[in-house]
Each structure stands twice: as C-alpha cells, then as structure tokens.
Write a structure and sequence with these properties.
The complex is a heterodimer.
Chain A: H1 2-11, E1 17-23, E2 30-35, E3 40-44, H2 47-63
Antiparallel strand pairs in A: 1-2, 2-3
Chain B: E1 10-17, E2 22-26, E3 34-37, H1 39-53, H2 85-89, E4 96-104, E5 111-115, E6 121-125, H3 128-140
The chains are: A alpha+beta, B alpha+beta.
Chain lengths: 64, 143
C-alpha cells in the first residue's frame, strides 16, 4: 500500500528534491534540500536529518 | 549478547532480508517490536525508538518540512523495561542479527557501537552513514 502511494506520488511528478552537500563534517553530510513542488528549502546538519526531512515531506504528501 | 543484561539504550536488529533491508527491531525498553522495510524506514524507526525510550536524547531538534512533526520526550534516566534480556536474546533474524548500543546522539546523528549475538563488539560508529557502512561490512563477513 505504502509502495503504491509512493509510486503514484512520483508518477505525478511530485516529491522531487534538489540536495546540495556543502560539507562533510562529523562523518556525515551538511547542506540544503529544496522541495521543488512546494518551493521550500531547508538546511540539514546530517544525513539523518536529511532523511527525516525527506520523510516529513513524503509523509505529508501521503497524508493528503 | 550472551548472558549479559541488555541496556535500555540497546536495540536488537533482526534482518530477514539483507538486500531488501527488511526485518524488525526490538529492545528491552521497546514495548513492541517494529518491522522495517528499506534503509530509510530502518533509520527513521531506530530514531523514533530511541525518542520513545527517552535515552540517549538527541542533542538537537531534527528539522521537518511539516510543523510540529515530533513530540520530544524528556530524558528518562531509568526507562521502563517491557522485556527481559532473554526475551530479546531469543529474537533472531533469518539473515543477520546484531545489537546496536546507542551511546549519544550529537550533531543530529548517532554514536555508539554494534555488537554481535555473543556480545563481541564488531564496530563503533559516529553517524548513521558510518552505521550503515559497518552493517554492509558485517553482512559481507557472514559465512
């Protein structure tokens, strides 16, 4: 079910992001992620935060 | 971790399928075991599990595209133990079983070590990227 929702969302040309890695301190990544459709840009301090940001965007899309 | 007490800040990761990154996580201070499917899911669920356990606490609030996405709990010095160490010891993944001990969560990341079923330390990690690098290495060493 989750996979279907995800593929539908991607087919709709939604959920596209531009990720810019600015530095790689503390064995992780720092940079910015831009959510193209919503025109929102957020800085992230780690790969974990990047994944949580992507998750929050995808969760919001699936919730409607 | 043979014959050792599992600390509250530990999680057993049972992989049923390494390639697909599928399995479940459980811990003495996790009320129920949680299934994961994919790397992203595993990362999010481990992070959520430690948020719920209440230690170690994250040192920074993780950003979100949504408002009020997470409800952070206060630090819990002595988290509730829902299961005995033996309960957790009995959980095994079809492909691989490892224990993760999270010692801190600085720099919006994870720090800790990975232990095998016998309690031998396999690796120390300084971030989630490090953690996955080690998992790939450990999975590659399997007979």
């Amino acid at each position: 079910m989750e996979k279907e929702l995800l593929s539908d969302a991607l087919a709709d040309n939604k959920n596209k992001f531009i990720i810019q890695i600015i530095s790689r301190e503390n064995n992780t990544w720092q940079g910015t992620v831009e959510w193209i459709e919503k025109r929102k840009r957020m800085p992230f301090r780690s790969a974990l935060e990047l994944i949580c940001l992507l998750e929050s965007a995808l969760d919001g899309q699936m919730a409607g | 971790m043979n014959n050792k007490e599992f600390p509250a800040n530990s999680i057993r990761i049972c992989f049923d399928d390494i390639k697909a990154v599928e399995g479940s996580i459980s811990g003495v201070s996790m009320e129920t075991s949680v299934d994961f499917r994919g790397k992203r899911d595993l990362i999010v669920k481990i992070d959520q599990a430690f948020d719920t356990i209440g230690q170690p606490q994250p040192h920074q609030v993780i950003r979100s595209f949504q408002k009020q996405d997470k409800n952070y709990k206060s630090y819990i010095g002595d988290p509730e133990r829902y299961h005995t160490s033996d309960d957790i010891r009995q959980k095994k993944g079809e492909a691989l079983t490892v224990d993760m001990i999270m010692t801190s969560r600085h720099h919006t990341e994870w720090q800790g070590f990975i232990v095998d079923e016998k309690g031998e330390e396999l690796a120390r990690f300084e971030s989630s990227l490090d953690f996955f690098d080690w998992l790939v290495t450990i999975a590659g060493r399997r007979p």
